[in-house]
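hey so i finally got around to running the thing on that chain from the lab meeting. sorry it took forever, my laptop kept dying and i had to restart like 3 times. anyway pasting the input first so we r on the same page abt which one it is
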Amino acid sequence: MAQRLFGTDGVRGRAGTYPLDVRTIRRLGGALVRALPRVASEHSLLVGRDTRESGGWMARELAHGARSAGGRVTSAGVISTPAVAYLTREASFDAGVVISASHNPFEDNGIKVFSGAGEKFTERLESEIEGVIADVSWEVPAGDAHALPDEDLSAAYLAHARRALPSARALAGIRVAVDCSNGATTGLAPRLLRELGLDVVAVACEPNGRNINRDCGSTHPEFLARTVVEEGCRIGIAFDGDGDRTILVDHRGNVVNGDGVMLLAARHLQATGRLRGNAIVATVMSNIGLEVALRETGIAMIRCPVGDKHVMEEMLARGLSLGGEQSGHVIFSDFLFTGDGLVTALNVLEVMAATGRDLSDLAGQLTTFPQVLLNVRVKTKPDLAEMPRVASAVREVERRLGDSGRVLVRYSGTEPLLRVMLEGPDQRLIQEWAELIADSVRQHIG
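ok and heres what got predicted. didnt touch it at all, straight out
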């Protein structure tokens, strides 16, 4: 059986060490070309990356492997993940590859793959690639990787994204703060928002290869919140390192996560007759309060495992137009079947323009249950059923909560972490009970 390389969002690790060492990256490039259906004499790949200092050499090594298997590789340079997905589909590439570790620190990196339809590879296709990598009957030729010149393909993507804000004139001149996390949206988001007539205050837009996500972006919205208040902005938009998610801030400095965005978007789509199936998809991490608020207007919420790949698969299976994650991955399927931070932000601006309401008012429709999320660093990831003390602690907390809350314990698919999430009516109690479970985990595998 081939060794698992792909997690919840592609291959992740420390750049330069397995599975992101030169040999494995080259084999992944070659395996990708070999695994694609043979419908043409050669396969074309589009490669994009975020601003990490390791991105350039990783792109060259992956291209070396792909070319050795007969692939033709085009580099879009530094560009967002959703831009690669869109361009792969629209320019008829056979696959798209993004070199990024999203919201992780600069030392990490990753590789995620999109089909020619601009959709993340299914687990079945990922398993096929892993099988080809494990096949010892082939090897990538030795030698230095050739140069991989970048092509600026951003204009086509930005023309696509701007369709999300047809009412831009109604927002002309409003002040917007944009935090690009020193990442892939640096050359995209401020540019498009200015072209649409908004007054943009851009922060964390000076990438140096090592400052991506450092105290900024969607995982540190407090930085953006200060900027919004100090600069008198109507709204703040924070992206993560590769631009597939966004967290928003209202004019008072209050943070609005993916749950708040999905609620206001779902209600607007419903009001305009565009919410297919009268339902949305959200993951197990979304707050119970979202489910309650949606139910009030007759909108169903279907839960799925964590990862926008799972959200996409559920949306495709049910023919739905909206889905996402609390973390800020939101999918508007009329635009693309992957999370797109810029398109999400533009859709929220469109709701503001169409309704004449501020984000604080729109997001105020969501009343969240108190929630605690603890990330416990672990050395190994055994099945939870193999840790009786942890299982016992979870059962005890579930007994105490009854029907008034929920417990979710799961491993991160991209980091050595076990996540303990509790929701319930009393913040102090759920904090105490979450610590109880976390302590039992630390005793076993911390």
